[in-house]
Amino acid sequence: MTRNPTPLSPYYRSLTRNMVLLVMVISFTPMLLVTGIILDHFSSSHHEKVFAHLEELVLKHKQNIDSFLEEKVQNIRFLADSIDFGRVGQADAIAEHLNRLQSVYGTVFVDLGVINEQGQQIAYAGPFNLDNARYADADWFKKAIDSDYFTSDVFLGLRGSPHFIIAVRKTWQGQKWIIRATIDFLSFNRIVEKVRIGETGFAYILNRDGQFQTKPIFDFTPTLDIYSRYFANLERMGKEVEIQERLDGAGVKSLYVSALLKGGDWLLVYKQASDDAFSDLHTAQKVAIVLLLLGGVAIVAMAVWMSTKMVRRIATSDKEKEIMNEQVIETGKLASVGELAAGIAHEINNPVAIMVEEAGWLQDLVEDGAYKSDADIQEFERALNQIRTQGKRCKEITHKLLSFARKTDSRIEDFEIGHLIEELISLSAQRAKYSNVEMITRIEPKLPAISASHSELQQVFLNLINNALDAMDRTGGTLEISAKHEQGQIAIEVKDNGPGIPRANLARIFDPFFTTKPVGSGTGLGLSICYGIIHKMGGDISVKSTVDVGTTFEIRIPVKSDDTVDDDTVSSSDTCN
Q1: Residues 248 and 383 in one domain
Q2: SS3 of 550, please?
Q3: Which of its termini does the chain have fewer beta carbons within 10 Å around, N or C?
Q4: How big is the chain by its Cα radius of gyration, in Å?
Q5: Which domain holds residue 201?
Q6: Which has the higher per-residue pLDDT, 363 or 501?
Q7: pLDDT tens digit string along 169-197?
Q8: Which of 156, 75, 167 is nearest to 119 (CA)?
């Protein structure tokens, strides 16, 4: 059958809580610090890794796109060198060149045309009806006619679908000619669409007016002022790739990686939500938090188990200590009774001697036959009364001694301390008489009651009285005991004019086993017991002494109040030994 553990007192419950908190603080502090430092370093390292990967990705695609555009320009420049402008207007002349381009490069080149310097397209090959189209007012033509080669922005133009052109200028017979080729928008767009990472990562291209040059996967409206700053930052700092983290138009924190294309006319932008980009980091952080919580639960459980176990051991030890203290107090009390024996023996000896003398006188009267006259009978009655009186006196003395010796119950009770002091003075009066010590009492009448152990206070005052009588045993003197009520306390003084205590010994006077008496005359436990008893009941004991002047012990005990704490809630650790 399992025994239920005894419930702990409020003091031990408080001690358990404090120990649990201390263990938790000691355990959690380094764990949280180490975890925080590791996560911070891991976060920084992961951010650097992600940034480096995205920069490398965007830089690689920047180079691919620039290479694609440069390659197409070179294709048209090479083609322009092989065109015979004298027969360019002949049927199928341009178609042959377009077929040659498409046979090598596929459908990247949609159509091909030759335009004179007046903007008139004099030759065309392709799927659209653009023969004799006029481009004199087109922005791209105005820029192309003034450049050796030119790549336009994406626009709708006459065909009504997004496309961009590559134009090369050639001079023949004093006139400027433009050879233009249309690049398939879908083929170009697929190059940018390949820049995908995670669920939200995608790329797009903008021109300086904030217009899309590719079709983004997700629909949104670019903010011109923000992308204008990207252009400016890349040009000012001379960087190939720039990465920023900011909120997008929907309020989602995102990464933006940008790079300039087409000689700075276009901006390649890669966008990805930060949560998506750092998903591995967030997963690692969640795992770390879960492990931290599991470790925390284990620490709390271990702290509670260990603290409860240790406190129960402490409580058991304190209980054993308390029992030992009670045994020491009782032993000291019996020793004090032994010290009273000499005085008690003298006090009992006197009435016993009178009783023996009176009994002998009665025996003489009986032997002489003198018991018939009235005078003899009166003498018998006087002797018997004397024997009875002295017997009662012996009975009172032994009753006081036995009453003192048998009071071993240390339960807390309410009583007035003045009666206790007077009782102890009467017990010690005979010893004081034989030690030539005058005992003076100054006890204030009607002192407030105190809550304390009657027998333990007996032990305290008897020890102090016996110590004073021992100190004045050879020289005699005066022992003054006073008690009065001061500021919610009972102040008791035991003052003698004996030889005093040297200053060097005052600091150790309450230490266990410290004594100034000759070897075999004292245990050194008396004052230590007194100190422990007084402090256990919430009081205080102090000593003042001057050599050849005397010693004064002062005791202060709190008076009983309505909110006095029960004895079982007083910590045994408050008892000093």
Answers
A1: no
A2: strand
A3: N
A4: 57
A5: 188-277
A6: 501
A7: 998 888 899 999 999 888 889 888 888 88
A8: 167
Determine which helix (DSSP H) or strand (DSSP E) holds 196, and give its type and residue range.
Answer: none
Give dist(CA 158, CA 155) in Å, integer: 10
Give the domain-ending residue among 168, 187, 206. 187
433 plus 569 within the same structural domain? yes
For the chain, the residue count is 577
Cα 554 to chain centroid distance, Å, stands at 44
pLDDT tens profile 550-567: 999 999 999 987 644 444
The structure tokens listed for 454 are 């009657």
Residues 94 and 105 in one domain: yes
Q: Give domain status of residue 568, yes or no.
A: yes
DSSP letters of 320-355? HHHHHHHHHHHHHHHHHHHHHHHHHHHHHHHHHHHH
Determine the Cα–Cα distance for residues 288 and 309; give it in Å rounded to an integer: 31
Query: How far apart (Å, rounded) are the C-alpha atoms in residues 311 and 334?
Result: 34
Strand order in the sheet with 109-116: 121-125, 109-116, 175-183, 164-172, 149-151
Of 412, 530, 511, 510, nearest to 465 (Cα)?
Answer: 530
Task: Please tell me whether residues 345 and 475 are part of one structural domain.
Answer: yes
The per-residue pLDDT for 45 is 92
Cα distances from 93 to residues 98, 133, 180, 181, in angstroms, run: 9, 17, 15, 15
Residue pLDDT, tens place only, 379-413: 777 777 777 777 776 776 676 666 555 555 567 88
Number of H helices, E strands in the chain: 12, 16
In-domain check, residue 52: no
Backbone angles phi, psi at 138, to 5 degrees: -75, 140
Contact criterion met (CB below 8 Å) for 483 and 492: yes
Indicate the residue type of 37: I
CB 536 within 8 A of CB 326: no
Residues 508 and 445 in one domain: yes
Is 0.85 topped by the overall pTM?
no
Q: Are 135 and 115 in contact (CB under 8 A)?
A: yes
457 CB neighbour count, 10 Å cutoff: 24
- Same domain membership, residue 160 and residue 113: yes
Which one of 167, 187, 207 terminates a domain? Answer: 187
DSSP 120: B
- 542 and 418 in one domain? yes
